[in-house]
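Ticket #4471: complex job returned nothing on first submit. Input attached below:
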Amino acid sequence: MNENLKNIISQFKISGKIISIEAHGNGIINNTFVVTCEINNKMYEKYLFQKINTNAFKDPFRLMRNIEKVTNFIENKIKSSKRPFLRVILTKNNTCLYEHCDDFGNKEYYRAYNFIEDSSVYNKSTDPIIIYNAAKAFGNFQKMLIDYPIEDIEETIPNFHNTKERYKNFIKDIECDIKKRVSTITKEIEVIIKNQDKCNLLVDLLDKNILKERVIHNDTKINNVLMNKNTNDFLTVIDLDTIMLGTPLYDYGDGVRSACSAVIKNDQNPNSITIDMELFKYYTDGYLSEMANYLSQVEINYLADSILIMTLELAIRFLNDYINGDTYFKIDYPDHNLVRARNQLNLFKEIESKLP
Ligand code: ADP
Ligand code: GN1
Ligand code: MG
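Support reply: We reran it on our side without changes. The output follows.
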């Protein structure tokens, strides 16, 4: 057992004697472990333990304040139901994070949650029931937070889904062209510039108060839902690091973009991506099964646009990172961000042609 990690875990209010610490799951942001403790030689209690990635999340205390408040709010709503929920386990000093200095003097931040048993996580699925249930989970999450006091939530990553701002930064970075890559991507830039009005759409509606800000998840990949491993019903939404304010359309649009894309065979481009219209229908039904009664007419009117906008936004983010020399997204090969951006632009065109 890693003694260093064991010492850090011992700083939390956990019951019993630590008997194992195992790396867990396939998350690519934080380092995740399952800790098993033995109580009275026969009972076992498990905890989910994470080292926060401070490269992605610059202010872990801010982020944990959001998570602690939101998980307490949800617990109060559903504690009498059978559905499990995430609970932050505090340190022995009653803080939600443990700060540790490594051998080089760098600060590391750790947190603990209750471990949710008998769950499955899917990175990708073409099973309509799984897609429906994942969307239902995110809809349910928004529904539970519908009456959360929004002034209580802090912005942990400024302008995260502000597509208008992302577009402006993109244009600025094209002008700077620090890596001299702009001349190789003129076609991609042209597509984005042609669609500038789409980048402004949701942000302008928020600014004019036509769309309302709510508490949203902001990273609605299906692998951020724990499913019942036997029935595939959703258990709970996890990975709450990006909880911030925004329109629920960000979560819906990004959810469809990521869950309902499919690779198609195509002569010119063998790995071209499209939207699977059957999965799109299941995702939308699952989401609306929870949220239909809570969305305004304007929100409903812009559901389809949000899918397009979130896809365009991610294309801009990938291409912008490519122009700046790949500093944000991890890359596996030199043009990885450019390939990702092209895939999203391709998906954008497909969504545009297929969605009503
Ligand atoms: P990342 O930000 O790295 O994606 P996540 O918070 O999504 O980290 O967690 C990574 C993995 O750990 C998840 O995919 C899931 O398998 C597992 N996991 C996270 N929280 C819990 C929990 N409370 N109970 C059980 N498993 C969990
Ligand atoms: C990042 O690492 P992952 O997949 O959870 C990014 C998302 C993007 C996604 C694209 C905090 O999330 O916004 O949609 O990559 N998360 C952050 O693959 O920037
Ligand atoms: Mg995750």
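Residues 28-29, 56, 219, 221, 242, 314 surround GN1 (ligand 2) (CB under 6 Å). Closing as resolved unless it happens again.
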